[in-house]
Amino acid sequence: MSQDDRSPPIQLIDMVFPGDANHHGTLFGGIALAHMDKVAFLAASRHGRATFVTASSEKIDFAAPARVGDMVEVTGRVVRVGRTSLDVEVELVAEAPVSGQRHVCTRGRFTLVAVGIDHPLPPIASPVPPEPPAPLRMVDMIFPNQTNHYGTLYGGDALRMMGKAAFIASTRHARAVMVMAASDRIDFRSPIREGEMVELAAKVQMTGRSSVQIGVELRAEHLLTGETRHAATATFTMVSVDDRGQAKRWHAA
Length: 253
What we know:
Largest sheet: 5 strands, antiparallel
Number of strands: 10
Strand order of the largest sheet: 1-3-4-5-2
Order of helices and strands: EHEEEEEHEEEE
Number of domains: 2
CATH class of the largest domain: Alpha Beta
Shape: globular
Structural class: alpha+beta
Strand content: 35-45%
CATH superfamily of the largest domain: Hotdog Thioesterase
Number of helices: 2
Distance between the termini: 56 Å
CATH topology of the largest domain: Thiol Ester Dehydrase, Chain A
């Protein structure tokens, strides 16, 4: 069975740090490809609820670079489903945090194969009507080096993920240089295990003259069963700063 419709996308958002860039200050191609392959794997796993491996990718051309300080938004969606394989189309977009200027860096199509299944993969669902604007959503994967001896995610890594989501949401909201002023409250509700996917939802809760309060919810998802659970909630206060690191008014309260 094959189908050429489109499924709901899955999205990873990250920052380009100096360690991710070459001597020209642009994102290494290998890191861009790793982001794209991760998103393809997560999109395939969420669709098929099976163990997937990457079989191939089509030629990938880099049209424009992502630079240090940019956000990279990597979006993948299943575009073809066969009996035991599927194709995921992935697009990587760079975004300047303050100006909001965006450009497509590259696109690619990845073929992934389900391992050890004895039934056909599910077809792509019919398209759903567009929904109202939702909180910022981004996903990631939990690997062994992020877990303790119990096989669960370190609290510090969970905080890093939630802090990153708060930074991206506040920067997109204010289009200003934002820093974390306070971590107001954090509640850990359930452990997150190695091999699970995490989805973060970040939403603006309150806006002041130079600050914004962001609520972040972290959910864990078992990729084979689809079972999801609320893992943690946090609230962060982010402040706009000038070149001297002083609070800078950007919004009329």
